[in-house]
Amino acid sequence: MENAKKFSRMRSLGIVTVGASALLMGITAYNNKDRFFRTFVMPVVRLLPAEASHNLAVLACKYRVYPVSDYQDDVNLNTHFFGRLLSNPIGIAAGFDKNAEAIAGLKDLGFGFVEVGTVTPNAQEGNPKPRVFRLSEDKAIVNRYGFNSDGHQAVLKRLSETRKQENFNAVVGVNLGRNRDTMTPVSDYVQGVKVFGPVADYLVINVSSPNTKGLRDMQSKAKLAELLEQVNEARSGLEKNRNVPILLKLSPDLEVSDLNDIVAVIKRKKSRVDGLIVSNTTVSRDNLQDTNWTAEAGGLSGEPLKARSTEMIAQMYQLTNGKIPIIGVGGISSGQDAYQKIEAGASYVQIYTALVYEGPYLVEQIKDELSKLITEGGHSNVQAVVGTKSKSYLPK
Ligand SMILES: Cc1cc2nc3c(=O)[nH]c(=O)nc-3n(C[C@H](O)[C@H](O)[C@H](O)COP(=O)(O)O)c2cc1C
């Protein structure tokens, strides 16, 4: 067993080393690294099955084979994040680095912050494969991973080790979930707060993934109130000065009445949250061009989710009077998309699916476009844009 593991590790290392050398030679030979990635690397990577290319991308970030971004963030992208300073407001969304293997590599790509997870208390394999699908025509993904996770202890160890690295100063959030067969769903989250509260810059209560049966029901008023009360209690039991921010990640499939209920819950001191993440993937298939995928079970992300997620950001911004910071996520693939989410009410944004189609240099491109749009809009800083056109993004 040990030998098999060693062999598999050596093989991964071999693949990454050969891949990295070829990549670096290619980049050196080609003076436009962005175009090189879009034209050569990403189409080749997309020849692999979706989960295999996801794993390869995580390995590439883990072994830091991408060249470090030398892009200097414009000062108008600098922002505050729960007492920390971010060089830019763009993060990698949960689900890419589920097990905290690739944090430093992701920071190298130019992200302002990194969210790892979803992490479950005990290790679990998730759903049977295949469970990730590219919908290229729609620039979308359907996934039903079902919280494949190395579990709290393995992820804690990796995160703690990463934090000890020299010059490490990344803002890292940990996205918490529950085990599939748990009999005590609330205490799975409570355990997550206790385990990761001391090492995370923020925690996310993820009750919005569509791939774990019954999970999204935890967004209902009574269940959410109970969950968040216990989560808050667990946080207050953490060591002094570890008032770790707690964010709630929501599904885009909620009705207005659900949103009102959620706001009523999070306004109560006992069940408050410090921020919202809007949104997770959708079970809706309404906006698909390629209808072959309509029946594929799982959560849909990318372009078809974009408008709904922006609309829901505006709804939550209005319902909370702009008092609770929102991380906007769903279908962002350009600076314009990010800008619109910020106008709708997001203070920060995250991306995932577009990276699969556009490659890692998308991060620099989005930052560049966003910075220009902020200036063109007559704003001094990204924070000044937040919520400025919120009402215009509300559902018609
Ligand atoms: C393959 C895949 C796996 C995901 N896994 C998780 C996860 O474990 N936890 C979570 O909260 N969100 C997860 N998400 C959702 C993303 O974090 C994000 O909310 C969603 O994809 C919308 O952003 P996007 O359109 O930029 O991808 C996953 C998304 C994808 C595509």
Automatic annotation (TrEMBL):
<dbReference type="InterPro" id="IPR005720">
    <property type="entry name" value="Dihydroorotate_DH_cat"/>
</dbReference>
<dbReference type="InterPro" id="IPR013785">
    <property type="entry name" value="Aldolase_TIM"/>
</dbReference>
<keyword id="KW-0999">Mitochondrion inner membrane</keyword>
<comment type="pathway">
    <text>Pyrimidine metabolism; UMP biosynthesis via de novo pathway; orotate from (S)-dihydroorotate (quinone route): step 1/1.</text>
</comment>
<keyword id="KW-0472">Membrane</keyword>
<keyword id="KW-0809">Transit peptide</keyword>
<keyword id="KW-0288">FMN</keyword>
<protein>
    <recommendedName>
        <fullName>Dihydroorotate dehydrogenase (quinone), mitochondrial</fullName>
        <ecNumber>1.3.5.2</ecNumber>
    </recommendedName>
</protein>
<feature type="domain" description="Dihydroorotate dehydrogenase catalytic">
    <location>
        <begin position="77"/>
        <end position="373"/>
    </location>
</feature>
<dbReference type="GO" id="GO:0044205">
    <property type="term" value="P:'de novo' UMP biosynthetic process"/>
</dbReference>
<dbReference type="InterPro" id="IPR001295">
    <property type="entry name" value="Dihydroorotate_DH_CS"/>
</dbReference>
<dbReference type="Pfam" id="PF01180">
    <property type="entry name" value="DHO_dh"/>
</dbReference>
<keyword id="KW-0560">Oxidoreductase</keyword>
<dbReference type="GO" id="GO:0005743">
    <property type="term" value="C:mitochondrial inner membrane"/>
</dbReference>
<dbReference type="InterPro" id="IPR050074">
    <property type="entry name" value="DHO_dehydrogenase"/>
</dbReference>
<dbReference type="GO" id="GO:0106430">
    <property type="term" value="F:dihydroorotate dehydrogenase (quinone) activity"/>
</dbReference>
<keyword id="KW-1133">Transmembrane helix</keyword>
<keyword id="KW-0496">Mitochondrion</keyword>
<keyword id="KW-0285">Flavoprotein</keyword>
<keyword id="KW-0812">Transmembrane</keyword>
<dbReference type="InterPro" id="IPR005719">
    <property type="entry name" value="Dihydroorotate_DH_2"/>
</dbReference>
<comment type="similarity">
    <text>Belongs to the dihydroorotate dehydrogenase family. Type 2 subfamily.</text>
</comment>
<dbReference type="GO" id="GO:0006207">
    <property type="term" value="P:'de novo' pyrimidine nucleobase biosynthetic process"/>
</dbReference>
